[in-house]
Design goal:
mainly alpha; extended; 82 residues
Length: 82
């Protein structure tokens, strides 16, 4: 269930965050929620083991050093939500 939260922040900071959110195709609420989730997330003591298939695939894909995964994903999201 979503609940409304009111925050007081510096106007310049808000503008910077709005620009960041737009560039990353996210909402301000989504950024704040993600930050709070990360902040309160308990660190796992031991990571889950990889499945046999994932272990076989690990290291198989080689990308060009100039390939920008963030840019590629942003392009994908831009097309998806157009």
């Amino acid at each position: 269930m979503d609940t409304k939260l009111t925050l007081k922040l510096d106007a310049e900071t808000i503008q910077k965050v709005k620009i960041y959110a737009k560039k990353n195709h996210q909402s301000l609420s989504g950024l704040v929620e993600s930050y709070f989730e990360n902040l309160t997330h308990e660190v796992r003591e031991k990571a889950a083991p990889y499945s046999p298939i994932v272990r076989q695939l690990k290291g198989k894909v080689k990308l060009d050093k100039a390939f920008d995964t963030k840019e590629d994903y942003a392009g994908y999201l831009g097309k998806k939500y157009k």
